[in-house]
């Protein structure tokens, strides 16, 4: 029984998504799982955009519902072999690069990528996801995680549970 419990724990992973880590360009390569602090967000979004457009569209649609100002999510090119996140807004014709995007929006995008990633562990533990988020956005995050996990036809039916810690 202890061995089974140990094996189950290997399927768990903890994430502390930090918007400050998500702003830079990252190398273009195959990666579907967000790193523990989210520093490979641009890599994951680029992979979803180029090879898993259905999941990318689901993330983009959810982000638009959570942040109505967002018109679209795109991937910009940085140095050769690198990409970065760009958002477009209705009232601004110019793309907004990740280094100019609000912390809350980057954190939402990170949580959405984690929730919809096919490479996610079976139990995802988020460290203080409420940081940077308004109370109404936290409810939307919970709803997005519920709809993404363990439902027939979802983009990540292997995720059984999300849990998180909170500051007091």
Q: What can you tell me about this protein's structure?
A:
The protein is α/β, with parallel strands linked by helices and 168 residues long. The protein has one domain: Rossmann fold. Helix content is 36%, strand content 23%. It has five helices and seven strands; from the N terminus they run αββααβββαβαβ. The chain has helices at 2-9, 41-51, 53-66, 103-116, 135-148, and strands at 12-15, 26-27, 70-77, 82-89, 92-97, 123-127, 161-165. Strands 2, 3, 4 and 5 form a four-stranded antiparallel sheet that branches. Strands 1-6-7 form a three-stranded parallel sheet, with no helix packed on it. A hairpin with a 2-residue loop joins β4 and β5 (92-97). The longest helix is centred in the middle third of the chain and has 14 residues, at 53-66. The chain is globular, with a radius of gyration of 16 Å. The N and C termini lie far apart (35 Å).
Taken together, the total number of domains comes to 1
SSE order in H/E notation?
HEEHHEEEHEHE
**Count of discrete alpha- or pi-helical segments spanning 4 or more residues:** 5
The helix/strand class is alpha/beta
CATH class descriptor name? Alpha Beta
What would you say the CATH architecture is? 3-Layer(aba) Sandwich
The portion of residues forming beta strands comes to 15-25%
């Amino acid at each position: 029984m202890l061995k089974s419990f140990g094996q189950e724990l290997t399927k768990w992973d903890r994430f502390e998504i930090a918007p400050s880590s998500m702003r830079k360009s990252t190398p273009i390569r195959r990666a579907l799982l967000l790193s523990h602090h989210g520093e490979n967000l641009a890599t994951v979004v680029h992979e979803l955009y180029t090879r898993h457009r259905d999941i990318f569209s689901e993330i983009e649609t959810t982000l638009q519902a959570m942040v109505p100002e967002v018109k679209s999510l795109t991937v910009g090119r940085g140095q050769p072999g690198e990409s970065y996140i760009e958002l477009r807004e209705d009232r601004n014709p110019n793309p907004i690069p990740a280094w100019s995007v609000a912390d809350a929006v980057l954190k939402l995008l990170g949580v959405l990528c984690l929730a919809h990633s096919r490479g996610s562990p079976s139990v995802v533990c988020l460290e203080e996801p409420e940081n940077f988020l308004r109370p109404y956005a936290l409810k939307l995050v919970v709803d997005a995680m519920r709809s993404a996990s363990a439902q027939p036809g979802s983009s990540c039916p292997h995720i059984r549970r999300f849990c998180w810690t909170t500051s007091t």
